[in-house]
Amino acid sequence: MKKELIKSKSNFNNPLKKTPFYEKFSSQMTQGYWYDWSGYKAASIIQDQELEYFAIRSTTSLFDISPLIKYRIKGKDTEKFLNKLTVRNVILQKNNTVQYTLWCNDDGHVLDDGTLFKFSEFDYRLCCQERHLPWLLDTAIGFDIELFEETDLVAGLSIQGPTSASVLNNAGLSIINTLKPFDFVTIKKNILISRTGFTGDLGYEIFLPNQLANNFWDKIWEAGKYLGIKAIGFNALNIARVETGFIVANSDFITAEHAIRNNRTRNPDEIGLSWMVDMSKPFFNGKDAIVKIRKNNLSKYVFAALEIDGKEPADGAIIYHDKKHEVGIITTATWSPTAKKSIALASMKLPYGQKIKSNLWVEIYALRELEYYKMMKKVSIVKTPFVKLKRRTLTPPLKN
Questions:
Q1: Pairing label, strands 191-194, 184-187
Q2: Which 3-state string (H, E, C) describes 285-298?
Q3: What angle do CA 369, 370, 375 make, to 5 degrees?
Q4: pLDDT above 70: percentage of residues in the chain
Q5: Could you give the angle at the alpha carbon of 353 between the alpha carbons of 348 and 355, nearest 5°?
Q6: How would DSSP label each residue in 110-133?
Q7: Beta-strand pair 229-231/60-64
Q8: Which of 18, 66, 261, 394 has a 20 to 30 A CA-CA distance from 38?
Q9: Each residue of 199-242: pLDDT tens digit?
Q10: In sequence order, what are the residues at sequence separation of 6 or more whose Cβ sits closer than 8 angstroms to the Cβ of residue 310?
Q11: Beta 40-45 vs 325-336: how paired, if at all?
Q12: Contact, 147 vs 71, CB < 8 A?
């Protein structure tokens, strides 16, 4: 017992791990803003947040996704296991494609969302925001599968922006020209290239063994030197993902394992992902609870996309009806340089945001010369994405 306590204590003194791309991103950094992403040192800003955002929307951006949690699932019962775990019908997914999905606990509350890569009916990779190995192993009891985490073994690089296809072509990866959105291809040395991303723009995600990371970076950086390639941090990516309406676990909703209070959890309908739940397939975790929730109208919240008058930041602001009654909270907000609007994602109490969509206001406190000024700004409920780009889905992609 004493040895265990000493070992446990030493873990708190361990520094954040460095990804295989850490030195490459660090060499581009002038601001020095880092944050903890799943135990890894990740960049929030590399040089300038605005310039990094415009690299996403105007040229090519590189973002380190190595800290993304990755699980490999193999074996005879892989599809049966994943069909029990997730809310979508895995059997309908085609080989060499990526499926956005989520999974719930027995109460129908969302544990996490993520992407599911299908190599074959016996081989998948699940990527997500949080670690879930104990839950996955418990769910896997009785299934003939092999399940292990490969986060520390596989590096990841997100290449996004209108010139991203041209960069990859310059690097000799013309194979990407045939990829449709949510397709992927595996090339020599186990390099996986998927037409996916978190920006709502033309883009790709690359997963490869750690030992290949440095050489691959050099190849991509050289291929993009005349196409405006730029390393970016999360802050710029966050603006782009809000413009697209993508949500982030434990930012826009609290996952079931992180919630301290029962009323902080959310079911799929309450975070705007009801379309994902396939009630026609056999039993999956949380199905009975979701059936009961829908039958008895037990959902209490709705997820909403908002446009807000003015330019003041509204992160964490309270939403009011008739300027009097609290009816929701903004989970993420930003000024959209492309839409030229103040936009936000929010969690609202029903029936507000669904049946009642007018006379909504947000309370903002703006700091001006060391004094806070309270402002009530009008809110409009809209549909996502706030920014829709045709180039995201064009196949073959436009070359620049």
A1: antiparallel
A2: CCHHHHHHHHHCCC
A3: 80
A4: 96
A5: 135
A6: EEEEEEEEEEETTEEEEEESS--H
A7: parallel
A8: 261
A9: 999 999 999 999 999 999 999 999 999 999 999 999 999 999 99
A10: 342, 364, 375, 377
A11: unpaired
A12: yes
Contact 225, 167 (CB under 8 A): no
42 bridge partner residues: 35
What length is written for the chain?
A: 400
β-bridge partners, 373: 366
Q: Can you say how many angstroms the Cα of residue 320 is from the centroid of all Cα atoms in its chain?
A: 28
Encoding tokens for residue 78? 């892989």
Contact 312, 290 (CB under 8 A): no
Mean pLDDT for 159-175 is: 97
CB contact at 8 A, 80 and 147: no
Dihedral pair phi/psi, residue 291, rounded to 5°: -60, -45
Q: How many CB atoms lie within 10 A of CB 370?
A: 5
Domain boundaries along the sequence of the chain: 16-68+152-244, 300-385
- The answer to whether residue 9 scores a pLDDT higher than 50 is no
* Cα–Cα dist 345/308, whole Å: 11
Amino acid, single-letter form, for residue 17? K
Which residues touch 188 (CB under 8 Å, ≥6 apart)?
none
- The CATH class given to the 16-68+152-244 domain equals alpha beta
Q: Enter the tokens of residue 59.
A: 């040229």
Looking at residue 244, what is its pLDDT?
Answer: 97
Mean pLDDT, range 92-107, rounded to an integer: 97
The encoded tokens of residue 201 equal 């723009």
pLDDT, tens digit, 9 for 90 and up, residues 280-339: 998 999 999 999 999 999 999 999 999 999 998 899 999 999 999 999 999 999 999 999
Is it the case that residue 13 has pLDDT exceeding 80? Answer: no
Whose CA is closest to 55, among 196, 228, 247, 204? 228
Average pLDDT, the chain: 94
Dihedral angle at the C-alpha atoms of 292, 296, 299, 300, nearest 10 degrees? -140
Q: What CATH number was assigned to the domain covering residues 300-385?
A: 2.40.30.110
For 20-54, give the DSSP string. TTHHHHHHH-SS-EEEEETTEEEEEESS-HHHHHH
